[in-house]
Structure formats: C-alpha cells, structure tokens
Amino acid sequence: SQQGEEDPQALSIQEGENATMNCSYKTSINNLQWYRQNSGRGLVHLILIRSNEREKHSGRLRVTLDTSKKSSSLLITASRAADTASYFCATELSRTSGSRLTFGEGTQLTVNP
Amino acid sequence: GAGVSQSPRYKVAKRGQDVALRCDPISGHVSLFWYQQALGQGPEFLTYFQNEAQLDKSGLPSDRFFAERPEGSVSTLKIQRTQQEDSAVYLCASSFVRYTEAFFGQGTRLTVV
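ok -> structure tokens follow
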C-alpha cells in the first residue's frame, strides 16, 4: 500500500513558471524524500527533509514539511523544459530495525518551452 | 563507479524461466533496498538489507522471489519460475545508513513472455 499520495497527478506549465507538487501521508515519519524520474530511467534523489525540519532549499527547489497536517510540498521555481519528469515523495518511518521508503504514485510534470 | 549499478539493464525471460538480477551498491553503503515498479506507478518495496542481514522481506510478493547479499555489498534478486505479472522494472537503492539519502540504480526492465 502507498503511504504517500501526490497531488496533482499531472501538471502542465510554461517554461519560467513555478511548479508546486504536494504530498500527503498517513503515519508519523522519520523523514520524507523527494525524487525525480525521467521516462525509462532511475530515480534521482532531490531533497531529504527530517521530521523536525520545516523547510529546506536546494537550488531552485524548496521543500516544506508540515507534520501536523502530515503533508509536504515541493516547489520548483523558474521551471525549465528539462524539469519535465515524474516527481515522487517517499516517507521513511522510525523503526526499531529495518528500513523502507514508501512511495506515492507520483506527479507527472510537463514544462512546455 | 560512483553510483549504484544494476545489471542487466534489460531482460526478456520466457514464462517459467528463472532470472537473477544484480545490484552493485555504492561502496561503504550499509543499507540496500530492492523495489518493483510497474508502468506508471510508484516503486513498491520488496526487501531491505543492513549489511548482509535481510531485515525486512515483507514486500516480496511470493516465495518465488529471493534476495541475498552474502558479503554485505553486491546483492542479487532471484525470481524463480517467472510469470507474466513479474514484468516490471526492478530498482535497487543503497544508502550510507538508514534515515539518509537513498541512491537508486537505473533499474532492470524485466519482460516475461
């Protein structure tokens, strides 16, 4: 079963615009990670945000985390055609042993030149 | 190499054939994960290793699936008597320890005919 759910499922914007994707989850987490996947390729790690953090930045990426609402958002500013990809959030729970990342279904982002 | 390496990239198997998929994690990474990704969906957890110990295999869909990491580095995912529903991309990821960024390989696309 999927812990995270991304919203929207698909997003189409013009180059230069900002793109916002949201992720909701169900149980308390240790951290939440965002990944990008280009068609037919592996997942590329973007940002990890821990449960005691509220916001992180990396270049044109901004991630927020609201643990009270069990939600996260990924903002891509000044989008480029090369940002076209699927974006996934993945949650990792605190466990006594073992580990797993639980992924959502992803948001398909299309940036039109 | 600097990243996670998976081989083969593509595998076509006849129904009933056994297959073995290999993963070379990033050197020194303690944690190793296997995921299965169907077309258009997010990755689904299969199993987790901490060094050579398989701490979680609850995601393996049947007893035809078997994974090992005997020396705590390279891992092999074996699927016996493949069936059409096993067709998917199999992703391997590694992280330094749990609760840190996970890095994914390019995946093995398995097609069972």
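The mean pLDDT of chain A is 93.
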